[in-house]
Amino acid sequence: MKKLIVLRRASQAVSLTFFIYVLWSTTYPLEGFFPAGTFFKIDPLIIFITSLSQRVLLPGVISAGIMILLTFVLGRFFCGWICPLGSMLDLFACLRKKKIYLSDGQNRKYSLIKYLILLAIILLAIFGIQAAWIFDPLVISARFISLNFIPTATLIIDRVMVGLIQASDYYTPLYDLYRWLKQSVLGINAYFFANSLFIFLFFIFILISALFISRAWCRFVCPLGAFYGSISRFSMLRRVLGECTKCMACRKQCRMQAIKDDLTYSKSECILCMDCVYDCPPKITNFNFKDTVQKEDKGINRRQFLILMFFSLVVSGFKGRKRESKILNGSNIIRPPGVANEQEFLDRCIRCGNCMKVCITNGLQPAMFESGPQGIWTPRLVPEIGYCEYNCNLCGNVCPTGAIPKLGLENKKEARLGTAVVNKPICLAWGYGQECLVCEEHCPVPDKAIKIEKIIRDKKAVLVPIVDKNKCIGCGICQNKCPARPDRAIKVYPDLIGEAI
Amino acid sequence: MEEILRKIGAFFKRGLTRRSFLKVGGASLAVLLSQKLFPTKAFAAKKESAGRKKSKIKGDHDIVLAEGRDPYKNTEKAIELLGGMGRFVKKGSVVVIKPNMAWDRTPEQASNTNPYVVGCLVDLCFKAGAKRVNVFDVPCNDARRVYNRSGIAEMAKKKGASVYFADHWNVVKARFPYPSPMEKWPVLRDAVECDTFINVPVLKHHGLTGLTLSMKNLMGVCSGTRGLIHIDIGRKLVDLTDFISPDLTVIDATRVLVKHGPSGGNMEDVVVMNKVFAGTDPTLCDSYACSLMKKDPSSVPYIAEAIKKNFGNADISKAKIHTVKV
Known about the structure:
The structure holds two protein chains of two kinds.
Chain A (H helix, E strand, L loop, with lengths): L2 H22 L13 H4 L2 H11 L6 H14 L2 H6 L1 H10 L10 H23 L10 H31 L5 H14 L9 H17 L3 H5 L2 H10 L5 E4 L7 H5 L21 H5 L5 E4 L13 H19 L21 H7 L5 H5 L5 E3 L12 E3 L12 H5 L10 H6 L4 E4 L15 H5 L7 E8 L2 E8 L9 H5 L8 E4 L1 H6 L1
Antiparallel strand pairs in A: 1-2, 3-4, 5-8, 6-7
Helix pairs in contact in A: 1-6, 1-8, 3-4, 3-7, 6-10, 7-12, 7-15, 8-9, 8-10
Chain B lengths: L1 H13 L3 H26 L4 E2 L13 E5 L3 H12 L11 E6 L15 H13 L4 E4 L7 H7 L2 H7 L3 E2 L7 E4 L11 E3 H4 L3 E5 L1 E5 L3 E3 L1 H4 L15 H12 L3 E10 L12 E10 L2 H11 L8 H9 L11 E5 L1
Parallel strand pairs in B: 1-6, 2-13, 3-4, 3-8, 4-5, 8-11, 9-11
Antiparallel strand pairs in B: 2-12, 6-7, 9-10, 11-12
């Protein structure tokens, strides 16, 4: 019995299921057994880098610290036993037939890339720029699961059930089951995310790389792996060999290629998958806390370090230059409620997709390059798809780094996202003299930010909407419900653009 | 590195045998076909409907108004004096109760029907022998929030009704024997295919029409771009009411929103009237509600249209109105 491997696989399965469950339950009314940011709180890369770059102390510093302490004891157990991206890579790698081996020299060279990435991230954080989100494995898997996997899965279940219900006699117990599912597991809307194809492609690229080189991402790119790797150099748990026959079985089998040609192993690369314990024909491989310290490889050399410093300085100088912004919070797209400063928001947001997953109307969508290349996959409100629900503050509650501030309901109701502006020529009331006022009807502000006025048009009295710019909070429900097509006759603009119009 | 490139190259070179070509081709064809089939088959309203049968059942009075502190008892009394629920609900029938459950507001804010009025009606329906009581609406805000915060879902479920979210794929196309602006409008099938339809609006202010009443409440059984119903709203709502022809209209005037409707939100805009009234003629109920609010019925577009079309009786001076204190 490969007890340890069974245990490891169980741990990976549980952790992946748990990860998906946490994201799946990140939805109204937010009654999952675990808070939405559970996994990010144990991610030291996200927690410490964001804390460092923003000069704040995020909640989760303690849990991330515990993970570091555990790594001091056990080594990179997170990568092998918990990381959802690692689990998915392992799962996907079942499809491959042959592995590619790199020579020790090549392997060492490529393995250094991740340390360089980590160092760049740390240096940028010192200069106040948070770049941890780009390659963080938890962010990448959360974004894929929230914005690709769950919407697709719910859509397929929904469509199949609808097809079955329509093929059968409509009002059967199946229909009751469908209604129950919609109220509990599926959610009432099938979510849609614009441009989610690019998120999918980014993720699938990582998965496919595992077909050619096992765990290629973890070995060469992952900055979280590098972080844990540099700690696990000092870890207490070690691999110990007995009377070795030099059969090289473990060397061939190791998914991280942590075992070298001379059968020593690089502790910072070992993810404790425990394969070598059972692949060893004479059964002399073991892990314990007792053995003496093994000599470790050197990390990056001075030349590499200097090159790195230079590049980070250039990059940070380039990014740190504040652009002259014409508008108050500097954004030309509508941000979630409570976001005050665009630059700070961009630096703090890790693009995990929690806010978009939880958004009750599906209005928060991943941006592409609308707010510049550094704004990719940040949330933006697209009122055509969904508006900001007046009594809802879920996005602030699930944000793991506080990029969207956690507002109380009363403060949220006053948080301004933008200003609505009526486009009079295409408005059904202003332009065509029709009865409409759908925007006024839906306006959630208790005193109505959209006022009714009576004008005489073609000798006929018409009721028309007028936006009170002081009361408008820019929630976008007017734009969402406006019946004018193809362009909505009332649109929400970010604050000062709206006021200029 | 060379090794990797070689392998990648080999993967693509090796790839295309006849077998794999057929597999891939078949799979992609299946995907394409399923994409073509799904929306047309599953999501088009194919079935057309000429609406519900007009009911000839009348109450003992044209309108019964019950006034008192407890909305539950008001409703009970009003229905009892109208002739009892047994007159409208037959044994083993399917009943639809359509409250105004459109806004993410609490019962105190008076934007939605009082949950006790709905709860009482559910009770009465089951006492009269209904097999199933359906309670649903197509809300303006997010349905889950509205169902929870209005308190109606909880109350109706407690009383044994089926409360569910409307499915926009399960609709029928409305057909009319006369030219109508509502022709082919998608209407929820559940609202059309039921034995008894009870319309339970709440009396409140509305920006465009002045008052939200029973006919306006029926917008909640429509799917599609509902904002367009606002164009020529009078004709559309009268035709829709003719299409649905509710058997019973119970108007909740327990707490009345008099300003900033229909969504409201200010407690200062709410007037406590503690009244519930019921009738079988939607036009009469609506114009009686206007008189309660001291408003000219002909200023409300859909009542004006009903008068013009001679749809129902809008003249309350000709109606038998019974008032009772509870």
